[in-house]
Amino acid sequence: MDNNASGTGSSSFYSRLLARLYDPFMNGMERQELHERRKALLSNCQGTIPEVGAGTGANLPLYPAGTTILAAEPSPHMIQKATENLQSETVQANLEWIRAGVGDNELDERVQEGSLDAVVATLVLCTVDKSKEAIDRFYQWLKPCGQLIVLEHIKAKSSVGGFLQNMATPVWKYLAEGCHLNRPTDAMLKESGFILIEEEYFSKGVPFYQTIAQKPKDSLNG
Ligand SMILES: C[S@@+](CC[C@H](N)C(=O)[O-])C[C@H]1O[C@@H](n2cnc3c(N)ncnc32)[C@H](O)[C@@H]1O
Fold first, then answer.
1. Residues 6+ apart with CB under 8 A from 138
2. What is the largest CA-CA distance in the chain?
3. For residue 211, which of 100, 109, 199, 203 is within the disulfide window of CB 3.0 to 4.6 Å?
4. What per-residue confidence (pLDDT) applies to 10?
5. pTM surpassing 0.90?
6. pLDDT at position 145
7. What is the mean pLDDT of each run of 10 residues along the chain (222 residues)?
């Protein structure tokens, strides 16, 4: 899997700039909607949890005490920004950064297949190069009844919305380091073998989806 965080071959300067612009860009949406949703999704997490694409660290203060978070992030600029952000936050979890993305050996080596209680992927399946492969990998990592927690913007259900997203995605993808506006992540998860024990659609200018997806109890490979 190509883990160039940009997917665009963008320069280090541009990546650094985006890492600085990301929080101001997301600030309104975070305050109005996403922060509360993150809190609710993460409040019952336990054990050792890889958070893939941890970005500027929006989730990291929200994990309960006693959890160990493997914060996997391929962009050193995002890690730098997260580290700065966390200086003014209380982080209850044990935190370990891994500078790697989904599919990188550094991450796979830290995770034993069928061993995990949870995997967290928020606003990252829009960006990883092969999101179906990433979902399959998360499935392999989880133990039976383990949970994949996802919060994501998705492809619109309306044909007009979908058309507009298809038009905008090539430019947006270039500007936003590989982010696709038109990924049907919800549909991919429904076809992935997970049981979606909670799911919710909501809209914040663009359509969003959140789910807690559970690996079946009797799954064979866990
Ligand atoms: C839109 S940001 C989301 C950050 C954070 N998860 C959040 O909820 O705010 C997407 C992040 O995914 C990272 N990323 C890109 N490709 C990745 C990959 N293959 N594996 C893991 N993370 C990746 C980017 O560097 C970026 O920090």
1. 52, 119, 121, 148
2. 48
3. 199
4. 52
5. yes
6. 97
7. 40 94 97 98 97 98 98 98 98 98 95 96 97 97 97 98 98 96 98 97 96 93 54
Query: How far, in Å, is the centroid of ligand 1 from the Cα of 168?
Result: 20
Q: In 3D, which of 100, 71, 67 has the Cα closest to residue 83?
A: 71
Helix runs in the chain, H state only: 12-29, 35-42, 76-86, 105-108, 131-141, 159-175, 185-190
Q: Confirm or reject: Cβ of 53 under 6 Å from ligand 1.
A: yes
Q: Is 5 in the pocket of ligand 1 (CB under 6 A)?
A: yes
Number of the ligand 1 atom closest to the C-alpha atom of 121: 6
Q: Pick the residue whose CA is nearest to atom 16 on ligand 1.
A: 5
Residue nearest to atom 22 of ligand 1 (CA): 53
- pLDDT on residue 219: 87
What CA–CA distance (Å, rounded) separates 186 from 73?
23
R_g over Cα of the chain = 16
Domains and CATH numbers, the chain: 12-214 (3.40.50.150)
Phi/psi of residue 194, each to 5°?
-75, 155
User: For ligand 1, is residue 124 a contact (CB within 6 Å)?
Assistant: yes
- Residue 122: CB within 6 Å of ligand 1? yes
pLDDT for residue 5: 37
Is the Cα torsion angle 89, 72, 5, 153 positive or negative in sign?
Answer: negative
